Protein: AMP-dependent synthetase/ligase domain-containing protein
Organism: Streptomyces triticirhizae
Amino acid sequence: MARQGAEALNPPGTTPQLPQPATLAHALARHAAERGDALAVHYLTAGGVRREHSYAELHRAALALGARLADLPGDQSDQPFVLIALPGGLDYVTAFFACLAAGATAVTYHPPALSSARAGRGYDERLARILRDCRPSAVLAETDLHERLARVGAEVGLTPWLLDPTRADEAAEGPPPLAEPLARPERLGLLQYTSGSTSEPKGVMVSNANLVHNAAGLAANLGSGPGQTAVGWLPLFHDMGLIGMICHPVLAGMAVRMSTPAVFLRQPVSWLREISDHRATVTIAPDFGYATAARKIPEHRRDGLDLSSLRHALNGAEPVRPRTIEEFAKQYAPWGLDPHAMMPVYGLAEGTLCVTCLDHRAEPALSEVSAPELRAGRVAPADGPRRVVLVGCGRSFTEDTDVAVVDPATRRRQPEGHVGEIWVNGPSVAGGYWRRPEATEEIFAAVRRAVVETHGVPVSEMGLLRPGAVPRTTSGKVQRRESARRWAAGEFTTLARWPDTGDADPRTPDTTTEESQ
């Protein structure tokens, strides 16, 4: 059973009044100066090795590696791109902040995870597309991967500098550390590639200012600050892992305790044990993580857990299922979990990460609506067996982020309770797609010129606007414009799955279907 009590925390929805940094690299420098001995990042690897950096250590390591990246040749804007292809871990975190410190653009990637020939070909093909697209000046990867990187680079006419930052001998050969971060708010901090599963991957251009705004918005919503701990296991090449679990806590001066997806999958209770042992206030995971913890951890493995410190359990990056929220909250209530901690969120790469989140004072909003009416583009209470359960994903996560449900044909807001295309505008919206002027024009620029009540980036997803919260359905993007049904957000819901489509749950037609809003 749970121990009683939890440490004093910032009031939810607030964050300590810290100066807004110019960039995340400057935020790290400030924390290194003011609380240098405090834990910044602790990592448990798949091999069971634990490593950590204090804020001062992470800052020093970033400046040292950053010095080796600062003089790299750049693109036409004279800014070098650096592909990070390291395994998830402390070295990945250091490499990311080194890129920012050097004024370079980090391009997040990963080493090959699977050994099959087919998986290997898929990895090489995607790698080649990304190398051809952004043409990085350097690739940070372990030495064992260098030959493969060189071969794929040669296939696209590229010879990047290959550097293994995990080797102490290479680090010792470098120039003196940078005296201070070189990053500027308006420059690109991150090139975040879309999945590219059905088309060429597109690099979303995320500026340093975008990163700070998104991280600060999350911190303000969650009341994040020094003395608190965030726990997670998401991969760092994923935006929710990098921005949600590294950028946001570091900007706020929190301690971060991370493991890897492999550690979680092998021993799911390790995630909850870390939350319990270190009195974590925040965790972030996709829906399947919470579902796994609710269904796969036997009760005897939960002995001694105390989840009473957990104020925010963010659920995003994939469809949010009502069943998962209810099961996780019910299963762990005896171990101190507050049901108000469950927080469905909605976001996308084009918005840096977060777009909407649930109010910290509210439990997740679940509602049953008529499936036929929803299919017709309207929201009405369920009055028959054909019903859809929607999960609210909250409101715009900052006051200066505008989320609207729009009829794409008229480019005007839909009335409350109607379905439409989700449009997003605000300081977290990225600058467009790298070397994709036509796609940038279609998705970003054209909408900003539209004469409508709100301007923003149209999302290839559906949502609906209702009083109180944005319902969420699928993050699975509806790409077929001629047949897509799109929805919108105020208190906002996006539709995770649409009844009677190939993506729907394998249930009989007349049963209730769950949809994440």
Summary: The chain has a mean pLDDT of 81. The longest helix spans residues 117-134. The first strand starts at residue 39 and ends at 44.
